Every structure is written in structure tokens, then in C-alpha cells.
Amino acid sequence: MNIVYGVVAGTHVLAALLVGVRLVRGPSMLDRAVALDVLVAVIMAGLGLRAIIADEPWELVPMLVVSLVGFTGSAAFARFMLYRDDQVADP
Amino acid sequence: MSAVADVALAGCLLVGAFAALSAGLGLLTLPDLLTRMHAATKPQAVGVVLILIAVGIRHPTVDVITTLVLIALLQLTTVPVAAHLVGRSAYRTGQVRSDLLYTDELRDALDRGAPPEDLD
Amino acid sequence: MDRSRLTVRVGGRVARLPIVAWLALVWVLVWDRITLANAIYGFVLGLALLLAFPFPAVDPGVRLRPAGLVRFGARFALDLARSVLPLAWQAVGSNRPGRANSVIAVTLRTRSDAVFVLTAVALSAVPGTLVLDLRRATGTLFLHALGVSDDATADLARRQVLDLEARVVRAIGTRADLRALTGEENP
């Protein structure tokens, strides 16, 4: 079982790195918003893995919070982009 | 823990990790924002739900499972909404590469006037 | 359904009791303890929240059909599971030339808000489609569809969306929705 945990944790790290490249590279802010969304999902997966390895799963409440913050973040972001570009395009 | 539960748990974890990896890979290699969003949003929900199932197998108590159900419900309802908001914003701010599109019926509809309703 | 019985009015503001009950359920789930005090507190909190931040009046018009719900849920889970594989494959081999995607418009046959929303949400789980925009007045969804590079694949994608709508209607649709569905299938 420990091997499985190791492989899964390694895959999560690899996924986070790939997402990180896109996060740095962009090119647009929306690309970064999407990348951040995936990063939030990977973080949730990591917390879940911790909860599985641990005896007492305290990670569940952070998972709930992270999922909500991730959603409000990207929703607000999308709205903001729309608003800002509207202002520029047709004032 | 029984062997069956062990195998199910390992399966959920591995497929979930694979989903996360495929999201990362897609995010990196796909050519434009919209196709990248496909790669990002779909495995995202599946990956998290699979991990949640694995947590449920490992800790099969009522208070853990109720929280897991809540997280899964939130995840399944918010991910599509967030994806839609970002996609809509991408289209409206002109970040769609039309050279990668065969037809674009939303552009046709917007050109005819009567823009789709606003969200608020 | 008598809607006035399911609402609470305080000084011109209206709170719908089913939504309050849903918020109370979420509250209880968060606290992990199913007690009466918890439920009452959640209920009061949900009511206060809905009165402070009014919810837009959407008529859900839902009729739950267990058999349809099970069928819809099973297919939804299958679609979710399927969405892992093709995209992983796509991620590796996507830069080949000649690939094209499309933005297609699909007009649903029913005009129910609930069916519209659930169809749009479920579409986000189906591999290959992404909801870009929607028009509630005509019930039109604008989708970014992967791999739609000619009219035949566009028609196929539209047919898949309409099939999904049919499954949603058979799960939660009212009788009027069902009529709208069959009315077009055999005119």
C-alpha cells in the first residue's frame, strides 16, 4: 500500500508542476485562472491522500474550504475579466 | 481493512492521480484556451470525486461520509459553473482562436444582434 | 402546487422554504452531528441568509421520477468516468494538423429552467463539450465541441445534446416537458 501512496503522491506533484508551468506561462489571465482551478483540484487530491494515510481525517474541512474558495476565486476572476474588457471595448 | 477494500482504494487513488496528471498534461500541450479548458475541467471533477470515494473507503464513518458527500456535491455543481463563467469570459474577451474552429454559431448569433442575456 | 404555502414573507422579502431546508441540510452536514438543535439553527440561519440576500425567483417546476433519475445518474457517472481517458489521449496527440473544433448552437425542445440548468451542468461532465454561453429566452446552448470538423460531426454532437436533454426530462421533467419532448420526436 505504501508503494501506491508513493506513486500517487508523485503523480500529484508531477501534475502540480505541469500546472505550474502553464500558470507561469499564461499567456492570458484566463489561462492562469484555469490553471489555478486545476491546482486547487490537485491540492484537494493531496489533502485527500493525507486524510487516507492519517488515522484521523482532519483534512476534510480544509478540503471543503479550498473547494469553495477555488470556486469563488475563479467565478470572481471571470466576472472581473469580462467587466474590465467591456470597459475597454465599449465605454 | 479487507483486501477488496484495499484494491478499491488503490484503484480510486491511482485513477484519480492519473486524472490529475492528464489535466496537467492537457493544460500544457493543448493549443488554445478553450481546448485547454476541456482538459482541465473534466478530469478535475472526476479526480476529486475518486479521491473522496477513497477517503470514504478508508474512513467509513457517518461523520466522514456526510462531509465527503457535501464536498462531492459542491465540486460537481461548482466546477461546471466556474468552467462556464471562464469560457464565457474567454469568448467575450476575444480569446478564442477562430482558426481552430470549423463553424462558430455563437459568432453568427451575436452578429445577428440580440446578444445572449447577461448573467446579472 | 400551492407556492404561497412554501414561502415565508418578511416585509416584502420572500424566502422559499425548500431552499431554506437545503441550506439547513448543508449546515447539518458541515457540523457532522444530526441533532434537532443543529437542524433548527441551520434553518434559522438559512432563513436569515435568504432574507438578507434575496434569491432570484426561478420556478424550478421539477417532478422527480425515480427510474429516470437512476438512469440519468448512471449515465452521468459513466460520462464522468469516460472523461478521464479520451482527454489524456488527446493531450498527448493533439498537435496534429487538420484537427478542428466548433462552436455550435443547440436549441433544447423544453423551456423549463430546471431542465435547462441540469442539462448544461451535465454537458460539462460529458467529454468533448463545454458550455460557452446560453440564451434562456429561446433555450439555446452555445457549446464548444471538440472534434467537430464537418457538418456530420456537428449533427452528431447536436443529437447527443438532445439525447442528454431527453434523459434529464425523464429524470426531473414535468408532464409538459415530456410532451414537448415527444411532440417533436413523432409529430
UniProtKB/TrEMBL annotation, chain B:
<dbReference type="Pfam" id="PF03334">
    <property type="entry name" value="PhaG_MnhG_YufB"/>
</dbReference>
<keyword id="KW-1133">Transmembrane helix</keyword>
<dbReference type="InterPro" id="IPR005133">
    <property type="entry name" value="PhaG_MnhG_YufB"/>
</dbReference>
<comment type="similarity">
    <text>Belongs to the CPA3 antiporters (TC 2.A.63) subunit G family.</text>
</comment>
<feature type="transmembrane region" description="Helical">
    <location>
        <begin position="64"/>
        <end position="87"/>
    </location>
</feature>
<protein>
    <submittedName>
        <fullName>Na+/H+ antiporter subunit G</fullName>
    </submittedName>
</protein>
<dbReference type="GO" id="GO:0015385">
    <property type="term" value="F:sodium:proton antiporter activity"/>
</dbReference>
<feature type="transmembrane region" description="Helical">
    <location>
        <begin position="6"/>
        <end position="28"/>
    </location>
</feature>
<keyword id="KW-0472">Membrane</keyword>
<keyword id="KW-0812">Transmembrane</keyword>
Automatic annotation (TrEMBL), chain C:
<comment type="similarity">
    <text>Belongs to the CPA3 antiporters (TC 2.A.63) subunit E family.</text>
</comment>
<keyword id="KW-1003">Cell membrane</keyword>
<keyword id="KW-1133">Transmembrane helix</keyword>
<protein>
    <submittedName>
        <fullName>Na+/H+ antiporter subunit E</fullName>
    </submittedName>
</protein>
<keyword id="KW-0472">Membrane</keyword>
<keyword id="KW-0812">Transmembrane</keyword>
<feature type="transmembrane region" description="Helical">
    <location>
        <begin position="36"/>
        <end position="55"/>
    </location>
</feature>
<dbReference type="GO" id="GO:0008324">
    <property type="term" value="F:monoatomic cation transmembrane transporter activity"/>
</dbReference>
<dbReference type="InterPro" id="IPR002758">
    <property type="entry name" value="Cation_antiport_E"/>
</dbReference>
<dbReference type="Pfam" id="PF01899">
    <property type="entry name" value="MNHE"/>
</dbReference>
<dbReference type="GO" id="GO:0005886">
    <property type="term" value="C:plasma membrane"/>
</dbReference>
<feature type="transmembrane region" description="Helical">
    <location>
        <begin position="12"/>
        <end position="30"/>
    </location>
</feature>
